[in-house]
Amino acid sequence: MNQERLFKVLVAPLNTEKVNNIIEKNNQFAFKVAPDATKAEVKQAVETLFSVKVRGVQMVNVKGKSKRFGRTEGKRPDWKKAYVGLEEGHDINFANYG
């Protein structure tokens, strides 16, 4: 996979209360990823960008919510989430990046 694709696979890290609990219990991190990303691409992107060893990747398709704007019905876009499990002794500190 080329270097340009690596930067497009990971869109953003997710930082929610649920994700923070998963980080503490399972040493897994969550990322918003490109809709066409695969597990292998996410694994390679995380290992390359953060210099860590990935244990496994789980992918989730998140459906966009239906919303109303006055009389107008709208829908937020669908997106993809990846839970990335790290090997023992590896950690990602987002304060060092960005």
Oligomer: single chain
Q: Provide the low-confidence segments as ranges.
A: none
Order of helices and strands: HEHEHEEEE
Largest sheet: 4 strands, antiparallel
Mean pLDDT: 92
Strand order of the largest sheet: 1-2-6-3
Q: What structural class do you assign from the helix and strand content? A: alpha+beta
Outline of the structure:
By secondary structure, the chain is of the alpha+beta class. It is 30% helix and 36% strand. A hairpin with a 2-residue loop joins strand 4 and strand 5.
3D structure, described in words:
The protein is of the alpha+beta class and 98 residues long. It contains three helices and six strands; from the N terminus they run αβαβαββββ. Strands 1-2-6-3 form a four-stranded antiparallel β-sheet. The longest helix is centred in the middle third of the chain and has 12 residues, at 39-50.
